[in-house]
């Protein structure tokens, strides 16, 4: 719906130094441009990330979270039409500690600094160990005078009640069909009228839903290819493994494992050969942990499809 885009607009509104018409940022001054390119030193966009080395000490974990966020922002500069975060990532305690560290900094360029906490509901996964949510809560209770904090969430009711009680809530409505139509035509290159109408209707007024549809279709095909290879001959299994990029396991390959895990969870909920599905899930989780250490994806895929074949 554009929640995080709205958050960036609010950051521009606070930091704009150009000629303005009321609260509207000018969009052309240096601060406005730096905000849009995700380069302003006083705008900190905190999104769910996965820290690679879970065994590191607390300070190292914060450094790793900072590096992971920098990597994600670089990816979003390269491709502004970014996909939704994987369902397995969250705002961990390392990210919360990083936010607390940055809150203490003096603004570098402006009179204010802004923190945009995207997908804030991802704090909810830590209810049993609520350190991350409590760290954010403390920041909301006693923010520095020079600080503005914006949370965005598609599931606000999943936030802790104590957090909800300390924020001003703004509901972002669905986009008009005319806006979605223009986006589909201009950004996705869809011109055939029937397909165009189908995409607009299925979006339900959400650009993010449109982008997720494309990702889900591609992810579904990749998962199906892996499961199919696991049921076939050793040659098929090795062909699939060799088809993986031999580098950067912490990327598309990890996303593939996440999608495969979600597929297996769906099968488990449906009661399909539960014992075999649970065993397959354990194999995928093992592979995913190794992928976080950047083990060669081809080797991981070769072992995984063989393991999936043995549990089938």
Short structural summary:
Helices cover 57% and strands 4% of the residues. The chain has 312 residues and is mostly helical. α9 runs antiparallel to α10.
Please give a structural write-up.
The protein has 312 residues and is mostly helical. The chain is built from 13 helices and 3 strands; from the N terminus they run H-H-E-H-H-E-H-E-H-H-H-H-H-H-H-H. It has helices at residues 3-15, 30-36, 58-78, 93-103, 131-141, 161-164, 177-187, 193-203, 207-231, 234-242, 249-269, 274-291, 297-311; strands at 43-46, 113-117, 147-151. A 3-stranded parallel beta sheet has the order 1-2-3, with helices on both faces. Helix 3 (58-78) crosses helix 4 (93-103), helix 9 (207-231) packs across helix 13 (297-311) and helix 12 packs antiparallel against helix 13 (297-311). It is globular. The two termini are 41 Å apart. Mean pLDDT is 82; it is low at 124-128.
Q: How is the topology of this model organized?
A:
Layout: H1 3-15, H2 30-36, E1 43-46, H3 58-78, H4 93-103, E2 113-117, H5 131-141, E3 147-151, H6 161-164, H7 177-187, H8 193-203, H9 207-231, H10 234-242, H11 249-269, H12 274-291, H13 297-311
Parallel strand pairs: 1-2, 2-3
